Amino acid sequence: MQRFKLTIEYDGRPYVGWQRQENGPSVQAAIEEACRAFTHGEDIRVMGSGRTDAGVHALGQVAHLDLERDMTADGLQGALNHHLRREPISIVAVEAVSEEFNARFSAVKRHYIYKILNRRAPASFQKGLMWHVKPLLDHEAMHEAAQLLIGQHDFTTFRHVRCQAKSPVKTMDYLSIERVGEEVHIHAGARSFLHHQIRSITGTLKMVGEGNWSASDVKAALDARDRSRLGLNAPPDGLYFRKVEFET
Amino acid sequence: MQRFKLTIEYDGRPYVGWQRQENGPSVQAAIEEACRAFTHGEDIRVMGSGRTDAGVHALGQVAHLDLERDMTADGLQGALNHHLRREPISIVAVEAVSEEFNARFSAVKRHYIYKILNRRAPASFQKGLMWHVKPLLDHEAMHEAAQLLIGQHDFTTFRHVRCQAKSPVKTMDYLSIERVGEEVHIHAGARSFLHHQIRSITGTLKMVGEGNWSASDVKAALDARDRSRLGLNAPPDGLYFRKVEFET
After folding, report:
1. Do residues B151 and B232 both lie within one domain?
2. Which chain A positions have a beta carbon within 8 Å of B113's beta carbon?
3. What's the pTM value of the predicted model, to 2 decimals?
4. What domain count does chain A have?
5. Which stretches of chain B drop beneath a pLDDT of 50?
6. How far apart are CA A15 and CA B134, in angstroms?
7. Are B118 and B93 in a shared domain?
8. In whole angstroms, what is the distance from residue B243 CA to residue B187 CA?
């Protein structure tokens, strides 16, 4: 048996999310179907580093799978991409790894980016790929307020009510906001995140960028540890799972 | 009567092209329909700076239209974008201009960009938005060969057989090739282009980038003034009408 590490890029628009679900097509199910196709019926489980929600995208999701048959990393990449050719999913890298490697449990840092299209004119190409916000955002004020969320905090305010994590305490390694032409990008990194944490933070920072909330409003909302104090939850459209780092 | 200049961004994938045609939806027809909606039935003609083909995109197509009713540029932009909200078309700027202005005949320079996704892994987000080329392209060799096409030439080799331009002689102002991460971008500028000229040049430069053609093969093909000597015609997917400059 050989374990492989897959790096995966996908457009989340047509999917109910990464995870296999009863109610619609998922990225995990599409890749498991592709495995079934080239192995002529084997049930192969694909485990991801993170569960992205419906409509959330990935530039560098990582997953692992185990193969009984003898196959090179290149051969596996070609076979998967061939069977995924009708899906907006691309296996961008495949690597043979030891059985110690686990996409979920060996991950030590996860990086996300949230893209806001910040202009008066509506989206064209960017529909479903960015959050369209019309008023000009003060990205410097957003960045400043974001620094209050760095480090270890109880993020109950910034957590979905159905989040399954045992503890609401997480450590945010960095949270940086930059303007790139008509876009505002929010970069976030942590060992792991709560359900909806980045979208909740993004919605709140948008209120800061519009001048409706101050940095101290963000601090008060964090300190309240109360979901009802959340400013705003951003839509999934602009969120990308960018990269995963593993223990070495 | 007031004339307005529109700057338009669109995803060309769902359209038969810019121009109104019998055989399917066009960008021009969608904008004319939006005009009909907010004027409650007036027939308003929208004239573009260039006719993009089926599947070709625009970052800065320009068009003009004349309005009888009293409306500000901002009001027109809002009304058009409201009625275009289900289309991947965005009116990014509107400006009131004199009747001397003509989107087609006042244009003195047109800029295009052609995007190649140059990696082994297939496209995900980029499907229909870039041309996927697997072998690593030598973009420096492509740039060097491209310089042979700068200036005034008879571009018969690089012209669609049904091109309606009176003369095959055009003046290429610049043709630059750069690598941007996994992408290779071809930048082209001229007063005007022949039908399929950029796609024909792109296909030929791709053969150079793969090492199958030399710069002197490109020169020989140009000098032959013979469409059958064309290396390859690139698909519409990667082509974007980027910007138009007008006489002042």
Report:
1. yes
2. none
3. 0.94
4. 2
5. none
6. 27
7. no
8. 11
